[in-house]
Design brief:
The chain is an alpha/beta fold. The chain has helices spanning 13-17, 20-30, 32-39, 42-49, 64-71, 83-95, 111-114, 136-149, 163-169, 217-226; strands spanning 54-57, 75-80, 102-105, 120-125, 150-161, 184-191, 196-202, 207-212, 231-236, 249-255. Helix content is 34%, strand content 26%. Strand 1, helix 5 and strand 2 (75-80) form a beta-alpha-beta unit. It catalyses: glycine + S-adenosyl-L-methionine = sarcosine + S-adenosyl-L-homocysteine + H(+). This is Glycine N-methyltransferase.
Length: 256
Amino acid sequence: MTESDKILVPKDLYKEQYSPEFAGRWDELIDWQRRGEAENNFFQDILKGHGVETVLDIACGTGFHSVTLKADGFQVTAADGAPNMLVWTRQNAQRLGIGDLRIVEAEWTRLGESFAGEQFDAVICLGNAFTHLFDEGDRIKALSEMYKLLTRDGIAIIDQRNYDAILDNGFSSKHQSYYLGEKVEVRPEYLSEDLLTMRYKYEDGEVHFLTLCPIRQEYVTNLLLDAGFRSVKRYGDFVENYDLYEPDFVIQVARK
């Protein structure tokens, strides 16, 4: 994976790609109702099983997990580095009657500055967001920042597309777990071992792109262990026992 560090991708490219227009249409891609049905309280059950009360969502996007977890009784802080996404986090929270959701713009490599003196029972980074980091040093730093913000026995949860399957077998999607909007065509525009550009085409012809780093499952597990986490458990599309190439998304739960 050290080769990925040679890719010259601007560190803040994601902020540009999550434009006001794309952020404003992101929920068409997710489909909150169908996403909730697909997850079937998976994250709530994981959090409750670890005795979690306080949650820091560092990649809140338009707020799906922050808002739903807050509605389910968790003490949630929603954070993201993309200000255009936070606009919609706030709007969605207000729309659903969660007006007291704490929302913070924060960079992953400087979480300790944004949340100085605070600790959380869980830090979550969902929606394939961790793969916006192209520099291995930034990945290590981000995990270190997450680790330091956790209480004793706290957990970090990170998910990603199944890049093992994409890199080894080509892109496919069962369209059953994560991005469930019916009117958005999602496919790779460019794929190499070091870089993936995803193309999102909406029904009216509008097109947006995201540039991502296709990191493999075992690599992320090892990063978590190297960061100091005692154990890491992996799930594929919300199932614990899965074939390496079977799921569309992989979720890793790391315990401090």
